[in-house]
Amino acid sequence: ADQNGETLVPTHCCFCGVQCGMYLRVDRGGKVFGVEPRNHDINRMRLCPKGINAYQQVNHPDRLTAPLMRRSRDEEFREVSWDEALDYTVAEIKRIQQTYGNDAFGLLGGASLFSEKTYLVGKFARVALKTRHVDYNGRLCMVSAAGANKLAFGIDRAGNPFSDILLTDCLLIAGSNVGECFPVMTQYVWGARDRGASLIVIDPRETAIARTADIHVALKPGTDAAFFNSVLHVIIEEGLTDEAYIAAHTTGWEEVKAKVAEYPPSRAAEICGIPAEQVVQVARTFARAPKAMAWHARGIEHHSQGVENCLTVINLCTATGHIGKPGSGYGTITGQGNGQGGREHGQKSDLLPGGRSIMNDEHRRQICEIWGIEESELPRAGTSMMEMIWQMQRREIRGLIGICNNPFVSLPNYKVVKEGYDTAEFHAQFDFFLSETAANAHVVFPVTTWAEDDGVMANAEARVVKHNKAQDPPPGVRTDTWVMCELARRLGAGDKFAFADSREVFDELRIASAGTVNDYYGITYERLEETGGIAWPCPSTDHPGTPRLFEDGRTYHPDGKIHMQVVEWHLPMDPYDDDHPMSLTTGRTVAHFLSGNQTRRLGALVEQTPRPWAEVHPSHGFRNGEPVRVVTRRGSEVFPALVTEAIRPDTVFIPYHWPVPTAANALTIDALDPRSKIPEYKVCACRIEHAEKI
Ligand code: SF4
């Protein structure tokens, strides 16, 4: 403590997958009241507007400090004791499961939770609720990249650390508004450019990084696979492939080669709405660079062919030998703070801890032994987040607990989402603010913010970092861990949930991941404090971790090869017609985070960006601020126009952090990628009209 009795608690920002280091300032009364920069090697003292303001949520007047309950949605909430809220929730779980079966109750987690809590979400669903229906909001985030990574490399994480970006000669960023969504990562992007690297940006919008790129390809939304197939076509035609690398390290090359032969630049130009020369320019720049890297994010992943889009980028890196070297490789940028770690340890419907498959008998046996249950008791795979909503609409899932998510703003096709929740007979939500989704629940459990508990997150580099508790929770507030353990105890599974704190959960997680590709065994809280972060796999406590993958030329498939995959481009799921000739695409803005439940309450961020807008090209004749109605097959809403040449004339952009009546996700389509089940947020058919008023 300093002379004023104030202390600085080293921790990390709760927003976004960069996971910048920061200090939280704690006053002599033990309350968080500010933030200080921290010279952590991820961010070197830098923080973005979200990071600077994050601390303001901790003691915000909107914090929930008592459980809320009502037996019907027609009633007002009343504050109740923890016992009453827990007992009512357990009674409803038992009533629904005894009447309709265990799978009639579901659990939806979140990827902003610490990994310890995500581990508990998966275990709580399978062991206490005994349901197959558990999934999480990372299903809306990075699962397409995850699917592609597993298919190609047998491991689900970025191949290189951020610091490799500074070593590269050519950086390709596809579908990522880095400057606004991962602001501090921009230091690496512009650092590389300042050192002489070429910067290629693939994005329908001229974002901040696109403006500074050597090549900006403003392709039509939903055409990424055609573009990357065509880039590879040119690389092959011009003899720029790394044949020795391909021969030694890959499978599937001949099939990929045959497919991309069907994508000459003239075809890409027609599909993507770009000059054919740009395809050639990208191909030459990327393939000729001695070291090149590709990073992508939701822009290419939020599609009904999201997995395939990612695979076309992997094919590009692989065919040019740009894999697994300092300054050469491939990465995906996670959106949520724990977007990476949140999917590794079992809250995803098809996975068990350590990235094990819930359908693999050997994997099931291993986890049942750790959890102390019979294999026959462990449910099999359930469905994905959006599919669970459809099941709620059909009354197949009748009760739900949500933890750390806000689907009323974040899921596509709001009408369907609302109907699903309204059809559910019982819904409980854990949150620290009354989100739009929590406001529709029967029970709301007030839980801790990230500053009131210890835990780990894995950032976009797969580097595990330690968050430290800076203050005690306000009276009446409990940790998500405590609530899950208490519910489990009342459901009769208390002996499997006897965790006193996060450390005890983490130690079980370490054991549950040991021996897998996703190995955390060697990572301890003490080591994280000492090192500032360790990248998994880390199989023993003297192992340094694995910042860069594939350095020995081997992947995590049994044959050690990169499995290249054939991709055929297809049209987006929402067809264009005379009534809906344009593309609507959605995304984030620098001042807000995901559903906005946190950032829409923080004064400086609200002042910076108080409301959403529709970005339209000047050719449509709108003036700035004039009302523009955006119409899709799901509905229509009116936004102020932001008239800009930074967007294609055939495309409209709306940021999605707000609820109805200005919710981008009231307009988006609930079409899913068949493999990753990610919704197609980044393209649906729309038209725009002049409107009377906003
Ligand atoms: Fe937080 Fe991400 Fe901003 Fe860093 S870049 S301060 S992690 S929101």
The stretches of 5 or more residues where confidence is low (pLDDT under 50) are: none
Radius of gyration: 24 Å
Proportion of beta-strand residues: 15-25%
Task: Output the number of helix runs.
Answer: 22
Count of domain modules: 4
The average pLDDT is: 97
Compute the separation of the termini in Å. Answer: 51 Å
| Estimated structural class | alpha/beta
Stated plainly, the CATH topology of the largest domain is called: Rossmann fold
> CATH class of the largest domain, anyone?
Alpha Beta
Helix content: 25-40%
- Total number of β-strand segments? 28
What would you call the shape? globular
Protein name: Molybdopterin oxidoreductase family protein
Organism: Streptomyces poriferorum
Domain 4Fe-4S Mo/W bis-MGD-type: 6-62
InterPro entries: MoPterin_dinucl-bd_dom, Mopterin_OxRdtase, Mopterin_OxRdtase_4Fe-4S_dom, Prok_molybdopt-oxidoreductase
Q: What would you note in describing this structure?
A:
With 694 residues, the protein is of the alpha/beta class. It has 4 domains: 7-57, Single Sheet (N-terminal domain of TfIIb), CATH 2.20.25.90; 68-136 and 347-351 and 363-450 and 475-508, 3-Layer(aba) Sandwich (Rossmann fold); 171-323, Dimethylsulfoxide Reductase, domain 2, CATH 3.40.228.10; 582-690, Beta Barrel (Barwin-like endoglucanases). It contains 22 helices and 28 strands. The strands form 7 sheets. A 7-stranded mixed β-sheet has the order 5-4-18-17-16-6-7, with helices on both faces. The protein has a 6-stranded mixed β-sheet with strand order 24-26-25-28-23-27, with no helix packed on it. A hairpin with a 4-residue loop joins strand 19 (455-458) and strand 20 (463-467). Helix 3 crosses helix 20 and helix 11 crosses helix 12 (276-288). Bound molecules: iron/sulfur cluster (SF4). This is Molybdopterin oxidoreductase family protein. Keywords: 4Fe-4S, Iron, Iron-sulfur, Metal-binding.
